[in-house]
Design a protein that fits this description.
This protein is of the alpha/beta class. The chain has 13 helices and nine strands. The structure holds phosphoric acid mono(formamide)ester (CP) and norvaline (NVA). Phosphoric acid mono(formamide)ester binds next to helix 2.
Length: 303
Protein backbone atom coordinates (compact mmCIF):
# COMPACT_ATOMS: atom_id res chain seq x y z
CA UNK A 1 0.00 0.00 0.00
CA UNK A 2 1.37 3.40 -1.04
CA UNK A 3 1.18 6.12 1.64
CA UNK A 4 2.30 9.76 1.83
CA UNK A 5 3.91 9.97 5.25
CA UNK A 6 7.35 11.52 4.61
CA UNK A 7 8.96 13.04 1.52
CA UNK A 8 11.99 10.88 2.21
CA UNK A 9 9.98 7.82 1.06
CA UNK A 10 9.60 9.26 -2.45
CA UNK A 11 12.19 9.09 -5.21
CA UNK A 12 13.32 12.27 -6.96
CA UNK A 13 11.38 11.13 -10.04
CA UNK A 14 8.21 10.66 -8.01
CA UNK A 15 8.62 14.14 -6.54
CA UNK A 16 9.15 15.62 -10.01
CA UNK A 17 6.05 13.81 -11.27
CA UNK A 18 3.99 15.23 -8.39
CA UNK A 19 5.28 18.73 -9.17
CA UNK A 20 4.34 18.36 -12.83
CA UNK A 21 0.90 17.05 -11.92
CA UNK A 22 0.35 19.79 -9.33
CA UNK A 23 1.19 22.44 -11.95
CA UNK A 24 -1.21 20.78 -14.40
CA UNK A 25 -3.99 20.65 -11.78
CA UNK A 26 -3.40 24.29 -10.86
CA UNK A 27 -3.73 25.30 -14.50
CA UNK A 28 -6.87 23.17 -14.95
CA UNK A 29 -8.37 24.76 -11.82
CA UNK A 30 -7.66 28.27 -13.13
CA UNK A 31 -9.39 27.41 -16.40
CA UNK A 32 -12.29 25.74 -14.58
CA UNK A 33 -11.75 22.49 -16.47
CA UNK A 34 -13.96 19.91 -14.71
CA UNK A 35 -12.49 16.67 -13.41
CA UNK A 36 -13.99 13.51 -11.95
CA UNK A 37 -10.69 11.82 -11.14
CA UNK A 38 -11.85 11.12 -7.56
CA UNK A 39 -15.40 10.21 -8.58
CA UNK A 40 -17.07 8.14 -5.83
CA UNK A 41 -13.91 8.24 -3.69
CA UNK A 42 -14.31 9.14 -0.03
CA UNK A 43 -11.40 10.81 1.79
CA UNK A 44 -11.49 11.01 5.59
CA UNK A 45 -9.79 13.74 7.62
CA UNK A 46 -8.85 13.45 11.29
CA UNK A 47 -7.03 16.30 13.07
CA UNK A 48 -5.64 16.20 16.60
CA UNK A 49 -4.50 19.84 16.24
CA UNK A 50 -6.03 22.97 14.66
CA UNK A 51 -5.75 23.63 10.94
CA UNK A 52 -6.93 26.14 8.36
CA UNK A 53 -4.90 25.42 5.25
CA UNK A 54 -4.56 21.65 5.46
CA UNK A 55 -8.15 20.82 6.23
CA UNK A 56 -9.79 23.33 3.89
CA UNK A 57 -7.43 22.74 0.97
CA UNK A 58 -7.94 18.97 1.23
CA UNK A 59 -11.72 19.23 1.46
CA UNK A 60 -11.92 21.74 -1.40
CA UNK A 61 -9.49 19.73 -3.53
CA UNK A 62 -11.43 16.50 -3.07
CA UNK A 63 -14.69 18.25 -4.00
CA UNK A 64 -13.09 19.74 -7.12
CA UNK A 65 -12.05 16.28 -8.28
CA UNK A 66 -15.55 14.85 -7.80
CA UNK A 67 -14.92 13.03 -4.52
CA UNK A 68 -16.38 13.35 -1.06
CA UNK A 69 -14.52 14.28 2.11
CA UNK A 70 -15.53 13.32 5.59
CA UNK A 71 -14.21 15.33 8.54
CA UNK A 72 -14.07 13.12 11.63
CA UNK A 73 -13.38 14.84 14.98
CA UNK A 74 -10.42 13.01 16.56
CA UNK A 75 -12.16 12.68 19.89
CA UNK A 76 -15.38 11.36 18.43
CA UNK A 77 -13.68 8.51 16.57
CA UNK A 78 -11.57 7.94 19.67
CA UNK A 79 -8.25 8.00 17.85
CA UNK A 80 -5.63 6.33 20.02
CA UNK A 81 -7.74 5.78 23.14
CA UNK A 82 -11.04 4.07 22.26
CA UNK A 83 -9.42 1.06 20.60
CA UNK A 84 -5.95 0.16 19.38
CA UNK A 85 -4.55 2.03 16.40
CA UNK A 86 -4.43 -1.23 14.46
CA UNK A 87 -8.12 -2.02 15.15
CA UNK A 88 -9.04 1.54 14.24
CA UNK A 89 -7.06 1.31 11.01
CA UNK A 90 -8.43 -2.07 9.90
CA UNK A 91 -11.96 -0.85 10.45
CA UNK A 92 -11.78 2.59 8.84
CA UNK A 93 -9.91 1.14 5.81
CA UNK A 94 -13.13 -0.59 4.81
CA UNK A 95 -15.20 2.58 4.63
CA UNK A 96 -12.84 5.13 3.13
CA UNK A 97 -10.54 5.33 0.10
CA UNK A 98 -7.85 7.46 1.79
CA UNK A 99 -7.31 9.07 5.18
CA UNK A 100 -5.56 12.36 6.02
CA UNK A 101 -4.35 12.67 9.62
CA UNK A 102 -2.78 15.50 11.63
CA UNK A 103 -1.28 14.05 14.78
CA UNK A 104 0.87 14.96 17.75
CA UNK A 105 3.08 11.88 17.55
CA UNK A 106 4.36 10.65 14.20
CA UNK A 107 4.22 7.09 15.62
CA UNK A 108 0.42 7.35 15.44
CA UNK A 109 0.68 7.59 11.65
CA UNK A 110 3.09 4.67 11.48
CA UNK A 111 0.79 2.55 13.66
CA UNK A 112 -2.18 3.23 11.41
CA UNK A 113 -0.31 2.93 8.11
CA UNK A 114 1.29 -0.40 9.02
CA UNK A 115 -2.00 -2.31 8.78
CA UNK A 116 -4.00 0.08 6.63
CA UNK A 117 -5.79 -1.11 3.52
CA UNK A 118 -6.01 2.47 2.22
CA UNK A 119 -3.41 5.22 1.63
CA UNK A 120 -2.59 7.30 4.71
CA UNK A 121 -1.60 10.94 4.18
CA UNK A 122 0.37 12.88 6.78
CA UNK A 123 -1.35 16.25 7.26
CA UNK A 124 1.42 17.22 9.78
CA UNK A 125 3.04 15.37 12.64
CA UNK A 126 5.70 16.38 15.14
CA UNK A 127 8.24 14.83 12.76
CA UNK A 128 7.26 16.05 9.31
CA UNK A 129 4.88 17.99 7.10
CA UNK A 130 5.25 16.47 3.62
CA UNK A 131 2.18 18.18 2.08
CA UNK A 132 3.75 21.49 3.08
CA UNK A 133 7.16 20.49 1.71
CA UNK A 134 5.67 19.56 -1.65
CA UNK A 135 3.76 22.86 -1.92
CA UNK A 136 6.95 24.69 -0.92
CA UNK A 137 9.04 23.24 -3.73
CA UNK A 138 6.16 23.82 -6.16
CA UNK A 139 6.22 27.49 -5.13
CA UNK A 140 9.99 27.72 -5.61
CA UNK A 141 9.57 26.18 -9.07
CA UNK A 142 6.93 28.78 -9.97
CA UNK A 143 8.96 31.68 -8.61
CA UNK A 144 12.25 30.78 -10.30
CA UNK A 145 11.22 28.57 -13.24
CA UNK A 146 13.12 25.60 -11.81
CA UNK A 147 14.24 24.27 -8.47
CA UNK A 148 17.66 22.79 -9.11
CA UNK A 149 20.57 24.99 -8.02
CA UNK A 150 18.48 27.29 -5.80
CA UNK A 151 19.40 28.04 -2.19
CA UNK A 152 16.90 28.18 0.66
CA UNK A 153 17.88 29.77 3.97
CA UNK A 154 15.51 28.45 6.62
CA UNK A 155 15.67 30.94 9.50
CA UNK A 156 14.08 29.28 12.51
CA UNK A 157 13.60 25.99 14.29
CA UNK A 158 14.79 22.63 12.88
CA UNK A 159 11.18 21.42 13.09
CA UNK A 160 8.69 19.30 11.12
CA UNK A 161 8.40 21.89 8.32
CA UNK A 162 12.18 22.36 8.12
CA UNK A 163 12.82 18.59 7.95
CA UNK A 164 10.35 18.05 5.10
CA UNK A 165 11.65 21.02 3.14
CA UNK A 166 15.28 19.98 3.67
CA UNK A 167 14.47 16.53 2.28
CA UNK A 168 12.59 18.01 -0.70
CA UNK A 169 15.56 20.28 -1.41
CA UNK A 170 18.09 17.47 -1.08
CA UNK A 171 16.17 15.23 -3.45
CA UNK A 172 15.65 17.96 -6.06
CA UNK A 173 19.12 19.51 -6.12
CA UNK A 174 18.51 22.59 -3.97
CA UNK A 175 20.79 23.85 -1.21
CA UNK A 176 19.24 24.15 2.24
CA UNK A 177 20.87 26.13 5.05
CA UNK A 178 19.41 26.20 8.55
CA UNK A 179 19.97 29.34 10.66
CA UNK A 180 18.92 28.70 14.25
CA UNK A 181 20.04 29.27 17.84
CA UNK A 182 22.47 26.62 19.13
CA UNK A 183 20.52 23.58 20.31
CA UNK A 184 17.56 24.14 17.95
CA UNK A 185 19.00 22.54 14.83
CA UNK A 186 18.30 19.17 13.26
CA UNK A 187 18.44 16.16 15.58
CA UNK A 188 20.77 13.18 15.15
CA UNK A 189 17.98 10.84 14.08
CA UNK A 190 17.12 13.12 11.16
CA UNK A 191 20.78 13.54 10.31
CA UNK A 192 21.45 9.82 10.00
CA UNK A 193 18.22 9.22 8.08
CA UNK A 194 19.05 12.07 5.69
CA UNK A 195 22.57 10.82 5.07
CA UNK A 196 21.36 7.26 4.48
CA UNK A 197 18.41 8.09 2.25
CA UNK A 198 18.89 11.53 0.69
CA UNK A 199 22.53 12.52 0.38
CA UNK A 200 25.82 12.36 2.32
CA UNK A 201 25.86 16.15 2.02
CA UNK A 202 23.81 17.09 5.13
CA UNK A 203 22.40 20.67 5.21
CA UNK A 204 24.63 23.23 6.88
CA UNK A 205 23.58 24.70 10.22
CA UNK A 206 24.66 28.25 11.09
CA UNK A 207 23.92 30.49 14.04
CA UNK A 208 24.21 33.79 12.19
CA UNK A 209 21.04 34.53 10.20
CA UNK A 210 22.78 37.36 8.30
CA UNK A 211 25.41 34.97 6.97
CA UNK A 212 22.70 32.44 6.04
CA UNK A 213 20.64 34.77 3.86
CA UNK A 214 23.59 36.07 1.85
CA UNK A 215 23.26 34.46 -1.57
CA UNK A 216 19.93 32.79 -0.75
CA UNK A 217 17.14 32.71 -3.33
CA UNK A 218 14.54 32.11 -0.64
CA UNK A 219 14.33 33.01 3.05
CA UNK A 220 11.91 30.64 4.77
CA UNK A 221 10.56 30.90 8.27
CA UNK A 222 7.99 29.18 10.49
CA UNK A 223 6.69 29.77 14.00
CA UNK A 224 9.26 29.43 16.78
CA UNK A 225 6.89 27.39 18.94
CA UNK A 226 5.15 24.56 17.11
CA UNK A 227 1.81 23.08 18.16
CA UNK A 228 2.47 20.86 21.16
CA UNK A 229 5.50 22.88 22.37
CA UNK A 230 3.52 25.61 24.13
CA UNK A 231 5.29 25.01 27.47
CA UNK A 232 8.58 26.11 25.82
CA UNK A 233 7.15 29.32 24.38
CA UNK A 234 8.74 31.88 26.76
CA UNK A 235 12.19 30.33 26.44
CA UNK A 236 11.89 30.07 22.67
CA UNK A 237 10.78 33.71 22.32
CA UNK A 238 14.04 34.73 23.98
CA UNK A 239 16.32 32.33 22.13
CA UNK A 240 14.90 33.00 18.67
CA UNK A 241 14.61 36.81 18.95
CA UNK A 242 17.81 37.43 16.90
CA UNK A 243 16.37 35.19 14.15
CA UNK A 244 13.39 37.37 13.22
CA UNK A 245 12.83 37.78 9.48
CA UNK A 246 12.61 41.56 9.24
CA UNK A 247 13.61 44.36 6.84
CA UNK A 248 17.16 44.43 8.17
CA UNK A 249 17.68 40.72 7.50
CA UNK A 250 16.01 40.93 4.10
CA UNK A 251 18.31 43.83 3.14
CA UNK A 252 21.28 41.46 3.43
CA UNK A 253 19.83 39.12 0.79
CA UNK A 254 19.79 39.70 -2.96
CA UNK A 255 17.10 41.93 -4.48
CA UNK A 256 15.48 38.90 -6.13
CA UNK A 257 15.23 36.97 -2.86
CA UNK A 258 11.73 35.72 -1.97
CA UNK A 259 10.27 35.09 1.48
CA UNK A 260 8.20 32.01 2.25
CA UNK A 261 6.28 31.00 5.39
CA UNK A 262 4.13 27.90 5.80
CA UNK A 263 1.61 29.94 7.86
CA UNK A 264 0.00 30.63 10.25
CA UNK A 265 2.44 33.51 10.88
CA UNK A 266 2.97 34.99 14.30
CA UNK A 267 3.48 38.52 13.05
CA UNK A 268 5.91 40.42 15.27
CA UNK A 269 7.65 37.21 16.33
CA UNK A 270 9.36 35.19 13.58
CA UNK A 271 8.37 37.69 10.87
CA UNK A 272 7.44 41.38 10.77
CA UNK A 273 4.37 42.91 9.15
CA UNK A 274 6.44 44.82 6.61
CA UNK A 275 8.11 41.64 5.34
CA UNK A 276 4.87 39.61 5.36
CA UNK A 277 3.07 42.33 3.41
CA UNK A 278 6.07 43.30 1.26
CA UNK A 279 6.83 42.56 -2.38
CA UNK A 280 9.30 39.74 -1.61
CA UNK A 281 6.78 37.65 0.30
CA UNK A 282 5.11 34.80 -1.60
CA UNK A 283 3.53 33.09 1.40
CA UNK A 284 -0.05 33.37 0.13
CA UNK A 285 0.87 31.97 -3.30
CA UNK A 286 2.53 29.19 -1.30
CA UNK A 287 -0.63 28.66 0.80
CA UNK A 288 -2.72 28.44 -2.39
CA UNK A 289 -0.34 25.82 -3.73
CA UNK A 290 -1.15 23.49 -0.84
CA UNK A 291 -4.40 22.56 -2.58
CA UNK A 292 -2.85 21.87 -5.99
CA UNK A 293 0.00 19.84 -4.51
CA UNK A 294 -2.41 17.75 -2.42
CA UNK A 295 -4.71 17.10 -5.39
CA UNK A 296 -1.66 15.68 -7.17
CA UNK A 297 -0.91 13.49 -4.14
CA UNK A 298 -4.50 12.21 -4.00
CA UNK A 299 -4.54 11.31 -7.69
CA UNK A 300 -1.12 9.66 -7.38
CA UNK A 301 -2.31 7.54 -4.45
CA UNK A 302 -5.80 6.73 -5.69
CA UNK A 303 -5.67 6.38 -9.44
N1 LIG B 1 0.64 25.35 6.95
C1 LIG B 1 -0.34 24.62 7.50
O1 LIG B 1 -0.28 23.39 7.57
O2 LIG B 1 -1.42 25.35 7.89
P1 LIG B 1 -2.60 24.82 8.85
O3 LIG B 1 -1.98 24.51 10.17
O4 LIG B 1 -3.57 25.98 8.91
O5 LIG B 1 -3.20 23.59 8.22
N1 LIG C 1 5.79 23.94 12.77
C1 LIG C 1 4.41 24.33 12.86
C2 LIG C 1 3.76 24.26 11.52
C3 LIG C 1 2.33 24.68 11.47
C4 LIG C 1 1.72 24.52 10.12
C5 LIG C 1 3.70 23.44 13.86
O1 LIG C 1 3.94 22.22 13.87
O2 LIG C 1 2.89 23.95 14.65
Amino acid sequence: MKHFLNLIDLTADELKLLLTEAARLKDAHARRIPSQSLNRRVVGLIFEKPSLRTRVSFEAGVAQLGGTSLYLPANEVGLGWRESLADFSRTISQYLDALVLRVFRHETLDGIAKVSGIPIINGLSDWSHPCQGLADVLTVQELFGSVSGRTIAFVGDGNNVARSLAVGCGKLGMRFVLACPPGYGFDDKFKSEYIARVSPDFPKEVHDPFAAVKGADVIYTDVWTSMGQEAEREERLKRFAPFQVNAQLLSKASRECKVLHCLPAHRGEEITDDVMDGAACAAFQQAGNRMHAQKAVLEWLLR
